[in-house]
Amino acid sequence: MNILHTRSRACLLGSAGLLALVVSAPAFSQTPTPAADQAAQVDGEATSIVVTGVKATRSATAITTTEIQKILPGVAPFKAIQTLPGVMYVTADPWGNNEQNASLFIHGFSAQQLGHTLDGVPLGDQSYGNFNGLSPQRAIISENVGSVVVATGTAELGIASTSNLGGGIENFSSDPRAQMGAQLNHTFGSYGTARTFVRLDSGEFGNGNSGYVSVLRHRARAWDFRGKQKGWAANAKFVHDDSNGKLTAYFSYSDKQEPNEDATTVFKNPTNAAQAYQPYTRPFFYPDFDGAVAYLNASGNVPAAEAQNYRNYYSAAIRTDYLGYIKYQAHLSDQVDWSNQVYYHNNDGAGIVAGPITVAGLPNLFSLYFPGQNLKTATGNSGYAIRTTEYRIDRGGILSSIDATLGNHQIQLGAWYEYNSSAAYRNWYALNVTRPQDYNPYSLPPHDPLFTQYASEMRTNVLQLHVQDSWQVTPSLLVQGGFKSSLQFASGTFPVQPIIGSLPGSASALPEGEINTKRWFLPAIGAKWDFTDSEQVYVNVQKNLRHFQPYGGGGVTPWSSGSQAAFDNLKFNGRPETSWVYEIGLRSRRTIDSSFLTGIEAQVNYYHVDFSDRLLGITPPGAIGGIGGGGISGGTPAVFNVGGVKTDGIDAALTLRFGQVFSLYNAVSYNRSIYDSDYSTVTGAATGTRIGGIATVGGVVPTGGKLIPVSPKWMNKTVATLTLGDFDAQMIGDYVGRRFTTFTNDASVKSVFQASARIAYRLPASIVGLQKAEISLNVTNLFDTTGASTVQASANTNNYNVYPIPPRQWFATLSVNY
């Protein structure tokens, strides 16, 4: 395999060199329009997934607002890109909104290893307990998304991200419409869904001014418990565009209360009745307080057979976000543009679990904080206590770039700076048996906490610089080259330290200190050759970096490693994750003069990744059984550097068009990502061995040669669209192959295929004075498939967490434009 990887790299580098050395034609001046900008300008009229030419030298696909809303009106942007090649996004709700049980993988990289932006503004790394951003569905209302562009191989050099080892997901908001008007969408359906969206557009006024304001109310009961996932959101956008430049101002408000699904802990080889009890769902009891109390015995114990997969009273995520930016793109001359964008984001949120006090290490925790006391009495005498992780994000930054066309060169210089103050406070509250009305999954308890287990305060400065030259060597050959510098200065303190022994995996105070990482030269080179009027070949080679996560509330981060010694070891001896990504591909777009088949779009892309210093976080045994991949009592993961990962894969996408009546899109993806080496639990580092098997021998865990968990080898996506006059129908099929669920590959979940369908009819709007009116019906999980949705791997062998696939649901939507 090493010979194969060496040849792969040599082939891709040689291809880049061959394209760059093609005999040049006379130079000419050209200012190419970025395809991402073209996609962003599309508003409501695009009718296809774009598979060609979205990024000149990179594999990329775009999906526009029309196609997004066809999948399901109001669907989250991440859920919408599930139809794109190389992308796996699964959640336990049909909208894709729930963040706690979301799983996103592209080419073997998770969401936390990709770049994410909205109109250029960084959205962070999408960790569930996010410390540096927010999800796209909180940053923008789905109906206001203009397009989503997914670069599956590598993101642009200038993307504002500290995490993009692989590709990038760029979300673009739609611009205000040219005509004054209003849009009203209302969706109702399964489990009491009621979603109302209203948007008012000013139309163009004055000298190049336009704007819109919009409001959303979303409310739907979860399919397997009685919690209501609900929230309010508002967006506003203003644009002033004239010959001197373009001014854009954007504001987003999101207030979301989201009761959470609880994962089922699965043991491949259970050793007792509790491990053997593996229910398909774990619904919480709320609002049935009497039922929750009756579930426990007099001592507060859950049924013995359910000790691993017990039921909570409730769990939820509460998030309130304010996000805004002002951007001005100045046209300094016909050849030079200077763009400056300032942004600000504030988040106030909490993760809440109201659970039994006798499970997952809690008796030990409470006995340390209430020594010699009756623990049930100390926590409100209900047998339950409430754990919260209360978050704060306060960040702002600036993005600046200069684009200059100099002959047949387009030069871009850019900079991004961000300051972020974030915090995570772990509080515990009593759940008083005499006042059950005080507690719900939609707000924090109305009284002071019993105690704060720990509190982290993080401060981060990020500076990123980049330079790139796009050289139009000939009319048919484009060569791009450049590099970026990425610097992070992060420090963390714990104003409140846990009592020693209260966190599984930690026998000392949590670590404090500063870690600065600086990588001055992260290069990229690529080329695109239009060898016919309809076909082009592209190649790209790029080095990327993911900085250490400056987060003190858990996860694979130095500040959650459990001891000062472990932190210092990572600080002085550890290295952040890096990757070399190589990709080569062919794109084709042809119009066919035929009464039957009228058009073909296709793209095939091969990629190879050398991933260095892969970090794993192994959950301590005392924390297994909780939600979100960790125990209710908390815990600090052991962080290991398992060395390199090698990835080889291929994506292929094809769209066939049969006039204006029918189109068929299919995408197939293959990915093979394997660990280079075993690792040692003694040294915390890769061993360079591949001992095989699944048993740990002398502290050596046999990960070498094993596939990375959760990311499937095979995926296939199909979209068939039929349009007959005012009638429109669409069918989507999504196949996700077998996924391993442990780091040694001794357990896995089966492949799944899901389908969804849509029918819509455009009403005769002009009769009643409307610009447009449409009624549609969407059905998700058409064949009522059961199985594993999101999988969480946090152990070397035997056990993992899994969420169920939501059942078939239907949603009807009326959309009118005045």
Automatic annotation (TrEMBL):
InterPro entries assigned to the protein according to its UniProt record, in alphabetical order: Beta-barrel_TonB_sf, Plug_dom, Plug_dom_sf, TonB-dep_rcpt-like
Domain (TonB-dependent receptor plug) ranges: 56-166
Topology versus the membrane: Multi-pass membrane protein
PROSITE patterns: TONB_DEPENDENT_REC_3
Keyword Zinc-finger carried by entry: no
PANTHER family for this protein: CATECHOLATE SIDEROPHORE RECEPTOR FIU, FERRICHROME IRON RECEPTOR-RELATED
Record keywords: Cell outer membrane, Ion transport, Iron, Iron transport, Membrane, Receptor, Signal, Transmembrane, Transmembrane beta strand, Transport
Subcellular location as annotated: Cell outer membrane
Protein name as annotated: TonB-dependent receptor
Pfam families according to UniProt: Plug
Keyword hit for Oxidoreductase: no
Cleavable signal peptide: 1-29
GO cellular-component term (any): cell outer membrane
Main location group: membrane
Family: Belongs to the TonB-dependent receptor family.
GO MF annotations in UniProt: siderophore uptake transmembrane transporter activity
Superkingdom classification of source: Bacteria
